Amino acid sequence: MRKLRIGIVDLVTKGPTRALYARVMHANLASIMPQVVGVWCEAEGHQVTFVCYTGFEDLVAELPADVDLVFIGAFTEAGLLAYALSNLFRSRGAITVLGGPHARCYPEDARRYFDYVLGFTDRTVIRDVLQDCARHRPLGVHRAAPRQPVALPGVRERWKFIEPTLRKAPFFKIVPMLGSLGCPYTCSFCIDSVVPYQPLDMQVLQDDLKFLRQQLRRPRVGWHDPNFGVRFDEVLDAIEAAAPPGSIDFVAESSLSLLSEPHVQRLRRNGFKAILPGIESWYSLGNKSKTGKVEGLAKVEQVSDHVNMILRHIPYVQTNFVLGLDSDQGPEPFELTKRFVDRTPGAFPGYSLLSAFGRAAPLNLEYQRTGRVLPFPFHFLDNNHAMNVKPKNYEWRDFYDHVIGLTRYTFSGRAIVRRFRATRAAIPRWMNVVRAVSSEGFGRIRYHTELRQRLDTDQHLRRYFDQETTEIPEFYVERVRQDLGPLWQWLPEGALYHDHHAYLKSEEPQPLEPVSVS
Ligand code: B12
Ligand code: SF4
Prior knowledge:
The chain is an alpha/beta fold.
């Protein structure tokens, strides 16, 4: 096979930016798989140029002009940016491949713009693509491994891609690692609800931690495990054996059900500095938060006590909530979250609007079947800039009133000061302030408020929300145009639209097209 010039682009964001939060954090949110793909391509004898796109780079300048094959890793929010890039690189003669959450969730749509669209990706899938390396147009081919890979290259092997990415993070640097894939829980909205839990090789994990201690003075590791600590003792034993307490700082997403006080104490001893548990709802998903059938205010009190306990040991806790779940109705869920904010001043609440990412979860079939999915352009599907599932128990305007009320409450001067005072360590303190005053807190209040006003004044937008038209309102088109900047001109014709029922259609028998017999 000839030696290919390969470009790999990890899209951490959806367009050029100058935001303070982006400057501090984006390089710390880099994905693991694009780095893995880089290792595998080099192992096959090819030449790789790797770019983690944080919103500050000129992608065209950073990749060689004569690149043969470009891999792009993208979340759905960066789907349109990925399509524009693919179009640009194809115009220069390259073959393009899409992988990552967008490819997993919307393969039918992505095939219109890429030569290859990859689902679960292992070394065999990558080898097949490299060997084939051909144009597949107008429709790209979809390739996927039957399951998640059993092994992945660790930090040592990925270091040549990690290091230049970390150089872009000015204050602190987080190295992405994985100890497991899949999850034993079955939260109906989640992409991993049907992916079996599988620990990765503890030997590789230990070797990576030892390696990192040689590379960085005080490394920080961000675990990308969907649910860290499922086999708690096994993974903590491995960490303790490889890194003496205090030599590495860790950040992890984990569910409250795994975070008992003895576990949290052990995490503290081992340098865990930030934990992100999902609470999701006051009325459902009780087994994940270890609250069983307890609901409403009783659940708020129980979870708040639990989170306050964690905060006594771990300096930074982000609690994740989903707004607009079918189990919610009326003002109460929002009021309960405000009570939680009062009772748990040190936690940073992360809010996500209920979203159905294509074929991410079986529950999305139900939303599609009942006509509740709206075809917002991918660019807005980041859990915040659009909610693409019509709420079951709210009218849109009421819903946004509640969301704005809650967001204002959470990022009010009083709440920011209380959060600051309740947080002891310096980085978490200031991190909370930066998040509150930048795009996440104030930015979202501004955005939701504008949207809410438009629901009163912009007839077209209102009709779009009410599913009376699928023509995308100018408000959204204009935003995509602004966000993509110079790459807007490369956005393929029709890419703002997608078939929001593609998953359902692929699962259910389609009526036969009438055939003329003359
Ligand atoms: C860890 C994680 C994060 C981390 C790290 C993100 C990162 N850059 O990788 C953090 C906390 C930063 C994060 C942030 C966000 N996340 Co997140 N996150 C996850 C989580 C829990 C695990 C993903 C993971 O790394 N798995 C391990 C890898 C190895 O497996 P995998 O993702 O299944 O990938 C396989 C294939 O897709 C493929 N592949 C993956 N990437 C690539 C790249 C290439 C080039 C190729 C060829 C193949 C390939 O290979 C893998 C092996 O088979 C998932 C939920 C879950 N349970 O999976 C959500 C998830 C991916 N996140 C999601 C979202 C929405 C977000 C945010 C937008 C949330 C927000 N509002 O801020 C941001 C966006 C951040 C960004 N753009 O980088 C959604 C994505 C849905 C979508 N279609 O876009 C998910 C699926 C959760 C959900 N809602 O269901 N996230
Ligand atoms: S616990 Fe987290 S990763 Fe596991 S299924 Fe639920 S939401 Fe997904």
